[in-house]
Design goal:
The chain has 12 helices and 25 strands. By secondary structure, the chain is of the alpha/beta class. The protein has 3 domains: about 190 residues, FAD/NAD(P)-binding domain; about 130 residues, FAD/NAD(P)-binding domain (3-Layer(bba) Sandwich); about 110 residues, Enolase-like, domain 1. The protein has a 5-stranded parallel β-sheet with strand order 3-2-1-7-18. Strands 9-16-10-11-12 form a 5-stranded parallel β-sheet. Strand 1, helix 1 and strand 2 form a beta-alpha-beta unit. The chain is globular, with a radius of gyration of 24 Å.
Length: about 475
Amino acid sequence: MSRTSRSRERLVVIGGDAAGMSAASQARRLKGPDELEVVAFERGHFSSYSACGIPYWVGGDVATRDELIARTPQEHRARDIDLRMRTEVTEIDVEGGRVRTRDVDTGAEGWTSYDRLVIATGARPIRPDLPGADGPGVHGVQTLDDGQALLDSLAATRGRRAVVVGAGYIGVEMAEAMINRGYEVTVVNRGSEPMATLDPDMGRLVHRAMEGLGITMVNDAGVTKILTSEDGQVRAVGTEAAEYPADVVVLGIGVRPETALAKAAGLPLGDHGGLLTDLAMRVRGQENIWAGGDCVEVLDLVSGRERHIALGTHANKHGQVIGTNVGGGYATFPGVVGTAVSKVCDLEIARTGLREKDARRAGLQYETVTIESTSRAGYYPNAAPMTVKMLAERRTGRLLGVQIVGREGAAKRVDIAAVALTARMTVEEMTALDLGYAPPFSPVWDPILVAARKATAAVRRNAG
């Protein structure tokens, strides 16, 4: 049936996770089935799940896979969303207003027309282009299917040696998961320190803490080969300098936007490979196509540049904005300040805003300060240490970024800085923030405020 002959509009959504199904659900709330038909395609086995929770499921902190699923396909269908699982979109015909689909299990193909299209294809794990990288025992972890494959591999593996390739968020979280599973863990990292989202001096704190947890850290080491035994099973990860025995390998190198479909359709991509949208999350140059989630680039409110950040928080917000606009309302997504938190065992890691190299790349002059403090009043039981690093723009004193490494109670303090960044506050203005205080929760001067005071002094000292 052609678009013009239908009595109601059809919204087609590519991708059945956070951004896609948030968009579909919000559009459905605003427009009933008589006005809008909603069809969604998902190539995997699961919909609307928390990919961020996969390391904690693999590590045993989350008992079952189903706990990560927010809404099943059946629940979506009960809300008049035609969600078609195990169905992959293989082509977008922008001119014809249709998508080609393929049933993953049967191979059957067909076309579905649309009036409005949402692209929420997510991101894919980066796999090194090396022999053995696609072999048994080598796992990327991006979807629930990936997590299940890893757990199945662990159950079938007799050995207890795990090598994690990469030391970003995924890498350190999977290192923790393997430690929790009782594995001997080695992390092979191309960078000089783990957590390249931090400055190296803060990454060094993470490095020391990980080694204190019994994790072997191998920095400044690129993987050159993945070695397998005669039966094809992984047996080691090789670098130019050494080989590290492995019964299982987890890839934590990062992800790239999954935009092959969009690129083939001639839609605009940014420098990081993500789709480019306007503030309403509409694909630039297109009237009836929106995109959100891990497949798009977003505006960094601090640097003013586009960047790619794969986080479920952003994906859900994108979906809400898209669904509101498709449903006849109005909403925008102004951008991000780059806030993220993580942990490895009891070590908490947080950052927001710019690193030093980000500030230099943006042409900003800045001051940096680093302070040591505690999560509670020093005399209160279980006060835990933390290190806070703060960047402020020279002369203006505008906050540019904050990084925190510490124990319990450290990471979520970064939210104070995230709000200050969004409000474009100066570090001097931050010193007057009325933050909550009681000895069980904070010293009299919260660590963020201590860093802001020190940054204010640095700005004043170098104002000339």
